[in-house]
Design brief:
This protein has 106 residues and is mostly beta strands. It has one helix at residues 100-104, and strands at 2-5, 11-16, 20-23, 28-33, 36-39, 45-50, 53-55, 61-63. Helix content is 5%, strand content 34%. β2 and β3 (20-23) form a beta hairpin.
């Protein structure tokens, strides 16, 4: 994971390149799919991600890492939302009676 900084050089997030973004409380805030960030909460498109540089939907830098050259880009076209995975078959023995939230709260 790599730290991400805002324009004032304040630590604002952590990034696992091409995968995920967490805020400084280590809350998962975004996933990265095909070079674009998507909100883990709303599913909304947040903008392109170029290596360790995160851009808004207008192509302007939002946060960066010193290993990455900072630059903007022309307003990007909105990509198609990533497809939701197909519903899996019921596993042998069935699903747990615990919800995901109950499971992580143990």
């Amino acid at each position: 994971m790599f730290p991400l900084f805002d324009k004032d050089c304040d630590l604002v997030a952590w990034i696992e390149p091409n995968r995920h973004i967490w805020n400084t409380n280590m809350d998962w805030v975004a996933y990265i799919s095909h070079g674009h960030a998507w909100s883990s909460d709303s599913g909304n498109w947040m903008g392109p991600v170029k290596g360790l540089l995160c851009l808004d939907t207008n192509g302007k830098p939002v946060c960066w890492n010193p290993k990455e050259r900072i630059s903007g880009m022309a307003r990007p076209a909105r990509p198609a939302r990533p497809a939701r995975p197909a519903r899996p078959a019921t596993p042998a023995g069935g699903w747990s009676s615990l919800s995901f939230y109950a499971w992580v709260a143990q």
